[in-house]
Amino acid sequence: MIQVAINGYGTIGKRVADAVRQQPDMEVLGVAKTRPNFEAETAIDKGFPLYAAIEERADQFAEAGLEIAGPVEDLIDAADIVVDATPSGIGAENKELYEEYDTPALYQGGEDAALVDTSFNARSNYEDATGADHVRVVSCNTTGLSRVIAPLREEYGVEKVRATLVRRGGDPGQTNRGPINDILPNPVTIPSHHGPDVETIFDDLDIDTLGMKVPATLMHMHSLNVTLEEEVDAAEVRELFADESRLFLIPERMDIDGSGKLKEYAMDAGRPRADIWENCIWEESISTVGSDLYLFQGIHQESDVVPENIDAIRAVLGEADAGESIETTNETLGIGL
Ligand code: NAD
């Protein structure tokens, strides 16, 4: 059994912990948090040993009536691998800790690509992570773009990608984010940083991205234009995507017109936390004009990186090849709407 530590038990960390628990070859050794809050209480309720991420604040947990298993150092020392799911920039500060205990580490998309040996997307470059000490699971947006670009590159070749990312202002729990009543070019500079991030997965890709932020919390929306190296029929692209396990093609008959109904569907389907691990591509939007492909896709920012973290654990430790790992992760989580 792979003993997994999770440092940072927030939006991503708690989802990764639940997903690890569902794997036949993994165990949650413990989760680390900086302070007691509702998520700390839930971790205890779920039976995850809770470790104090910051020694000076460890007393706060006892004061809140929460039992601590020990300092985060004990957890890192005992683990086979650590998933760092702390806020952007904190992962970089934690790198020294992981090196001190010689524990391989996964970081999240908020960290710089320069921090790690390789950036990771299971569908696109699984093998690059094998044996690496520091691996970054790319952001929700980069994951969503990579899953679409990988099959297109393999099947047709990609000349150029142009994507406009309409980004949610904050996650549902982020009460300090916005905008509340505005539409922001964000970042206002063009191209946005997202394109170079996708290039950490595909080194010879030509991609330009533009970003916006809107008053929404549920999902991101991508408007995508890919210039392929050959003229392709839209129906052929639909078939190609239908074979991809982490691409959900929203059929016209479902009458899902946006991220609100998508989340409603996920709730009706009994998904934990209404998570949608797959890219949600509107099937009708898949169109071609000559060699230009167009589509709209919704990306559930809080969960699409979760199966990627699970696969990255196996990739780093050399426990399975890409196909085996993706299949196990998909089956155990119930991926495939
Ligand atoms: P979050 O704020 O929801 O959770 C982070 C958790 O880490 C919190 O519980 C916080 O208390 C804890 N923490 C803070 N400092 C810590 C420390 N020193 N040691 C241990 N724990 C600490 O953040 P999140 O949204 O889960 O984001 C985590 C990472 O995942 C970031 O790199 C982010 O960019 C990336 N990411 C986030 C999303 C998203 O939509 N939320 C999507 C993809 C990737």
From TrEMBL:
Pfam families: DapB_N, Gp_dh_C. It comes from the Archaea. Gene3D superfamilies: Dihydrodipicolinate Reductase, domain 2 (3.30.360.10), NAD(P)-binding Rossmann-like Domain (3.40.50.720). It is found in: Cytoplasm. NAD(+) binds at residues 11-12, 110, 168, 301. One of its GO terms (molecular function) is NADP binding. The keyword NADP applies. InterPro entries: DapB_N, GlycerAld/Erythrose_P_DH, GlycerAld_3-P_DH_AS, GlycerAld_3-P_DH_cat, GlycerAld_3-P_DH_NAD(P)-bd, Glyceraldehyde-3-P_DH_2_arc, NAD(P)-bd_dom_sf. Homotetramer. It is an enzyme of class 1 (oxidoreductase). The keyword Cell division does not apply. It catalyses: D-glyceraldehyde 3-phosphate + phosphate + NAD(+) = (2R)-3-phospho-glyceroyl phosphate + NADH + H(+); D-glyceraldehyde 3-phosphate + phosphate + NADP(+) = (2R)-3-phospho-glyceroyl phosphate + NADPH + H(+). One of its GO terms (cellular component) is cytoplasm. It comes from Natronorubrum bangense JCM 10635. This is Glyceraldehyde-3-phosphate dehydrogenase. Residues 2-140 form the Glyceraldehyde 3-phosphate dehydrogenase NAD(P) binding domain. Its EC number is 1.2.1.59. Belongs to the glyceraldehyde-3-phosphate dehydrogenase family. Pathway: Carbohydrate degradation; glycolysis; pyruvate from D-glyceraldehyde 3-phosphate: step 1/5. The gene is gap. D-glyceraldehyde 3-phosphate binds at residues 139-141, 194-195. Keywords: Cytoplasm, Glycolysis, NAD, NADP, Oxidoreductase. GO terms for biological process: glycolytic process; lysine biosynthetic process via diaminopimelate. PROSITE patterns: GAPDH. Coiled coil: none annotated. NCBIfam families: GAPDH-II_archae (TIGR01546), PRK04207.1 (NF003251). The active site is at 140 (nucleophile).
